[in-house]
Design a protein that fits this description.
The chain is an alpha+beta fold and about 270 residues long. The chain folds into 2 domains: about 1-175, C8orf32 fold (Roll); about 180-269, Tetratricopeptide repeat domain (Serine Threonine Protein Phosphatase 5, Tetratricopeptide repeat, Alpha Horseshoe). It is built from 12 helices and 7 strands. The strands form 2 sheets. The chain has a 5-stranded antiparallel beta sheet with strand order 6-5-4-3-7. Strands 1-2 form a two-stranded parallel sheet. Helix 2 (about 15-25) packs parallel to helix 8 (about 180-195), helix 3 crosses helix 6 and helix 8 packs antiparallel against helix 9. It is globular and about 65 Å long.
Length: about 270
């Protein structure tokens, strides 16, 4: 929990991405051995550095990530049980060697950053991708599919699967995302699976974890309030929605939320 609370106070670039993802996993695994997973991540990073060589070109970097993470350690996207909640839990991903695109993407990013390589996650809808750059060249890699480089044609096909046949590539989809964005994307996968399974209590736990590292996100406070109200926790709902009102600049949502707050306060009284 301390890692999550600390992440909520840090500038985004200082957030330890993999450590924070492991701390989120530990919320449902209180006896989890952090050092075991950290040790594995350090081993992956060391092996990637050795495989890439002293002055690696872009192809060397892409090849080293694939060789170590995919070929040597056997990580792959979980095609068969994609909706398994373990696929969004970094500790389980490390144990099972399979996961969702964003969870695997965190492994790729962690290994690349350990070498001081230029790497970012991208704002690509429905399928998490990363961009690696070196010596004026860049490649967009797909962590879910063995870290392979994706061409523009392949990216268009991926987009149409995620967003519909009419969707077209936009510069917005190549925008780098922050560490918090990546972690929110990871946890959103869990939240949505719990909501689909009508596990509102578990969805609330996920949102509360998200609020620890992203306490300035008004949409999260509103969602927490709505979920708490659904569970009948009116005091918690009011508190969360009041925080939303303090943070939000969306007049329409503020108006709707003010009406809901009045109803909840009347029920409390």
């Amino acid at each position: 929990m301390d890692i999550l609370r600390e992440a909520g106070t840090l500038p985004d670039e200082e957030i330890r991405l993999a450590d924070t993802a492991l701390a989120l996993a530990a919320m449902s695994r209180p006896r989890m051995e952090f050092d075991r997973y950290r040790g594995h991540l350090a081993e992956l990073a060391r092996e990637v550095g050795e495989a890439a060589g002293p002055i690696p070109r872009l192809d060397d970097r892409v090849g080293a990530l694939h060789e170590v993470i995919v070929e040597r350690h056997g990580y792959h996207g979980d095609q068969l049980t994609y909706d398994d909640i373990q696929n969004a839990d970094l500790s389980r991903v490390i144990e099972r060697k399979r996961g969702l695109p964003v969870a695997l993407g965190i492994l790729f990013i962690e290994c690349a950053r350990a070498q001081d390589w230029s790497v970012v996650g991208l704002n690509f809808p429905g399928h998490f991708l990363i961009r690696l750059e070196a010596f004026g060249e860049r490649a967009i890699l797909d962590p879910f599919n063995e870290g392979r480089s994706r061409s523009v044609v392949e990216l268009r096909d991926l987009l149409k699967v995620a967003a519909g046949a009419e969707a077209e590539l936009s510069p917005e989809y190549y925008r780098p995302v922050t560490n918090r964005d990546i972690l929110l994307r990871l946890q959103n996968n869990l939240k949505l699976r719990f909501l689909r399974g009508d596990r509102i209590d578990k969805a609330v736990e996920v949102v509360e974890g998200m609020l620890m590292f992203a306490p300035q996100e008004p949409a999260l406070w509103r969602e927490a309030g709505l979920l708490q109200a659904h569970l009948g926790n009116l005091g918690g709902a009011v508190e969360a929605l009041e925080t939303f009102m303090d943070l939000s600049r969306n007049d329409q949502l503020r108006h709707q939320t003010a009406l809901l707050l009045q109803q909840l306060r009347n029920r409390l009284n």
